[in-house]
Amino acid sequence: MIVVSDTSPVRGLIAIGKSDLLKHLFQTVVIPKAVEEELLRISALQSSVQIFLQQPWVEIKQISISKEYETLRKYLDKGESEAIILAKELQADLLLMDESKGR
């Protein structure tokens, strides 16, 4: 099963110390590079974010920039746009996202 996540679901689980739930539910979680960058900017969770990003079950992938990505960027932030594009590129089974515009 391929699971791609946006920033907010991961950030929320990291904040409550439960990011390992992702491993138990999905075995592997893929995040786009923009989500990694957004997570790294959360200074209050810096050490927990570092630990999360170093987990062997977390994969960070770069997307291919496309016209569709540029269109999404008009309405969504970079992390959400990249998560949607990455989910499409990987033909993911699930996309974890809380942004109503993105969904």
Written account of the structure:
- The chain has 103 residues and is an alpha/beta fold.
- The protein has one domain (3-96).
- It contains six helices and four strands, in the order βααβααβααβ.
- It has helices at residues 7-15, 20-26, 33-40, 46-53, 67-73, 78-90; strands spanning 3-5, 29-32, 58-61, 94-96.
- The strands form two sheets. The protein has a two-stranded parallel sheet.
- The radius of gyration is 13 Å and the shape is globular.
- The relative contact order is 0.25.
What are its keywords?
alpha/beta, single chain, two-stranded parallel sheet, 103 residues, 6 helices
How would you summarize this macromolecular structure in one to three sentences?
Helices cover 50% and strands 14% of the residues.
- How does the major sheet shape up? 2 strands, parallel
Oligomer: single chain
How widely separated are the two ends?
20 Å
How many structural domains does the protein architecture include?
A: 1
Report the total helices: 6
What Rg do the Cα atoms give?
13 Å
What is the SS-derived class? Answer: alpha/beta
Dominant shape:
globular
> What's the mean pLDDT score?
93
Which stretches are low in confidence, meaning pLDDT under 50 for 5 or more residues running?
none
Beta-strand percentage? 5-15%
| Helical fraction | 40-55%
